[in-house]
Amino acid sequence: MRSLAIAGAVAILTACSAPPAPPALLTPPRVEATTRHPGTVEVTATGGCAPCSIAQAGISDESLAEAVVAALRESGTFAGAGRDSGSDYRLAVQIFRVDMPVVGLSMRSQAELGWTLTEQRTGRQVWQRSFQTAHVATFGDSPIGQLRAERAWQGAVAANIAEAVAALSRVPLTPVR
Fold it and tell me: Which region is the signal sequence (predicted)?
């Protein structure tokens, strides 16, 4: 009887936490960049969770930062993008909120992320914006409700990254060196 209670408690505790999503699930499939900036950018992220509870979107700071770096590299918005310091700019991304869908054949999630670009040498903030994006996952995305909910918030975050990177490529930056 005691081992059954322990097994039940372990099952409940492991069901209430989940590993964060890998960056590939948060990276938008394509980002349109208008301008290719000659400088380099370091990406930081805050507001994520690790481990994540069942009530949270499974986004770690690391996963979000890596997804943003991948989108910046793919789009060519900057000459270089990474997680290491020593870049011309720092792009700080903060998760303000990610709405989690609960039930439905079509599940809609919204994400709001804040974006701040700072010139590293001077500490001058050169761009700051907040974006709100949404994504709907349907039964065709997954017949399993939990997976459909994950697809919804992952899609909302990926859409946010795509919108922010496209907007960032339109910011007129002066050479920093």
Answer: 1-20
CA dihedral sign, ordered 24, 25, 26, 32: positive
Domain ranges of the chain: 19-169
d(CA 88, CA 93): 17
The CATH number of domain 19-169 is 3.40.50.10610: yes
Instruction: Quote the pLDDT of residue 13.
Output: 39
- Is residue 41 within 8 A of residue 9, CB to CB? The reply is no
This prediction has a pTM of: 0.84
Compute the mean pLDDT over every residue in the chain, rounded to the nearest whole number. 85
